[in-house]
Sequence to fold (174 residues):
Amino acid sequence: MNARLRRLIPPRITRLGIGVLLVVSGAIPASGIVAASSPPPVTLHGHVLKNLSSMTRLAAVPPDRSLTLTIALRPSAPTALQNAAVQASSAQRGSHPWLTPRDVGRMFGQSQANVDALAAYFSSYGLTASAPVPNHLSFQVHGTAAQIQQALSVSLSDYQDSHGHRFYATSQDP
Fold:
């Protein structure tokens, strides 16, 4: 993930390093301006298909191909969401009030501010972000393969599985 994304996403979404700045007499230039170094990029592990190495790589995705990606967001309270799902699935029909997608979003989804920050990040690369689904656990971005590759710092390729199904994927985590 590149430095622009780290600046746009609130600290609740990304892991931030804590640094200590030691100021030594004479280390600050006469102008008083000190350039801050950006933290190292954060890799988002788990985005490469586990069996991708057994698939046939056909070619690089053409940079001008129009693509739509669904951006999945982590629940704000994953354990509570899992517990609510277990409780709802074990309840008898009609004996438990069901949560609407908006209820799920309010209770477990990402805040509108977090979604807006991510949408702004993708928009800065020329991608169009759709409104989040009511549960605030995903939204879509639309654009060209080149825009997506640049925004996520990945390369996309077309692949084919053993059944002849074709798909695009990345062989590296963003």
Observations:
- The first strand starts at residue 56 and ends at 60.
- The first helix runs from residue 3 to 8.
